[in-house]
Structures are given as C-alpha cells and as structure tokens.
Design a protein that fits this description.
With about 250 residues, the chain is an alpha+beta fold. It folds into 2 domains: about 70 residues, no CATH class; about 130 residues, OB fold (Dihydrolipoamide Acetyltransferase, E2P) (Beta Barrel), CATH 2.40.50. The chain contains 6 helices and 14 strands. The strands form 4 sheets. A 5-stranded mixed barrel has the order 9-10-11-13-12. Strands 3-4-5 form a 3-stranded antiparallel beta sheet, with no helix packed on it. Bound molecules: zinc ion.
C-alpha cells in the first residue's frame, strides 16, 4: 500500500492515491522508491484509495513501500507529537542485558503515557515519511522537516541539520578508539558522526550495521535511519553529530 506513485518510469509526474480518477484504474504506476522496479495499480477511489504492486512486478525485498511494512494509518494522527515521540526514543538504554531490562521498561511506560496509540517507533515514523511527499503534513508536522533524506535536504535542510530530526543515511566507517560511527547522506552532501556514552551500545550498533552490510562492503553502505538531536561537529563544514543513548534511535532498513 502506497499513498502516492509516479505515472512515468522516469518519476517526474506524481499522483496522490486519493486524487486518482476512474480512468486511472487501468493505468500502470511506478513505486516512489527509485531503487524499486515495482509496477503499481490503483485500488479503490477517494479517501480509501491506495497503490498496490502488481503480483508480476512486486516491490524489492527491502522497499519501504512493500505492503507488509505499511500500516501507519492504524495510528492516531491527532495525538502525534514529533518532539515528544523523539524524546521517547532518546531515553537512555544501556547495552548490557540486566540494566537494559529495567531501563527499557521505564522507557516503555513513559512513552505509553505520553503518546498512547500514536506512532511511537522510529520504523513506523520512517515508513510514514517515505510514503508521503515532503510537503505533506502529519498532524501539522511537515514530513520534510521530520525526515532528512535526499528529497528534503535541498529544501528544508539547506544549511544543515540542527536540533531534533530523523535522518536517512548510509554507513561509512567507524573509529574503534573514539567509539564513533560515521555515516553520510546518500547524496554525500552531509556527514554524520554518532557518539556513544557507553561502549556496550557502540559495539551493539556496530554489530547491527555489520550484520546488514553486504559481504563485500564489511561496514559500508548500510542504509540507516537515525533519530537524534543534531549539532555541528567540530566546526567542520557539513558535518553533524548526535549522541546515541538508546538502541531505539537507530534502525537498519
Ligand atoms: Zn517499491
């Protein structure tokens, strides 16, 4: 299920599912993910319309628009608060199991009381953002301001990323001495440095990335989504850093 798609395979002409007309029912559309060669058709018309992949041309395995991933519409939009949600993800968890247990219980409890039935996980927020266009809003939050990716960088993050934001990037390298993980925006305009307060968490995240890396790359080129509070890194041009205090701040997609 996808909320918008392209009319042409070169992906210049978009159509929102809700704006589709009867004449679009026999047309073929293209998945918003440029790496995915799925062909889509429109299902339903009006408010409940969505795009679905043809069985003969399905989404690629890791496409964020694949139907199994997309159920953000089940969450309550009216109670969604981006800043609160992000604060929930940043509650520290430690890497070693006994401490993690009690800390994550506390985190779970507090996020339930602050935002019950609204989107709470980074993965669901990411799926929501990728399924919408960057100028769309979700409970008053502009999609392109919540998620920094290749689409939103030239428009909403022209001068960099400062404060709370979710970024889509690819892994680059790590520094075993400083316990830093480096990543870059896909178009390589920005570099991100992840700093860790706890060695366990650093090792944990490093292993997560290595697990997702193609064998030939080792560590590089894993697509990551990271929630954080971002600052300029050591006065370096187009470098930004955040502290990783919780496993919930990073997913590999
Ligand atoms: Zn796709």
């Amino acid at each position: 299920m996808v909320a918008y798609a392209y009319r042409d395979s070169s992906r210049t002409d978009t159509l929102q599912a809700k704006d589709a007309k009867h004449s679009d029912k026999s047309a073929t559309f293209y998945c918003p993910n440029p790496d995915c060669d799925a062909e889509l058709t429109i299902c339903n018309l009006g408010e409940h319309a969505y795009f679905s992949a043809k069985p003969s041309k399905p989404h690629i395995t890791y496409c964020e628009h694949a139907s199994h991933a997309n159920n953000y519409h089940r969450y309550d939009e009216a109670s969604f608060d981006f800043e609160k949600m992000l604060a929930g993800l940043l509650i520290p968890t430690l890497g070693n199991p006994p401490t993690t247990q009690s800390q994550s219980n506390t985190a779970r409890k507090s996020s339930q009381t602050t935002s019950f039935s609204s989107i709470r996980t980074l993965r669901m927020l990411y799926i929501l953002c990728k399924n919408k266009q960057i100028n769309d809003e979700y409970n008053g939050n502009i999609i392109g301001r919540m998620l920094l990716d290749n689409r939103s960088q030239p428009i909403f993050f022209k001068k960099g990323v400062f404060g709370n934001a979710v970024i889509e990037c690819i892994s680059w390298k790590y520094d075993e001495t400083k316990h830093e993980i480096w990543a870059r925006l896909q178009n390589q305009s920005y570099t991100f440095v992840l700093k860790f307060e706890h060695t366990d968490l650093y090792q944990n995240i490093k292993q997560l990335i290595q697990k997702h890396a193609p064998a030939t790359y080792g560590f590089k080129n894993v697509q990551l989504v990271i929630a954080g509070t971002w600052f300029k890194y050591q006065n370096k041009f187009n470098h930004f850093e955040t502290i990783i205090a919780s496993k919930k701040q990073i997913i590999a997609v």
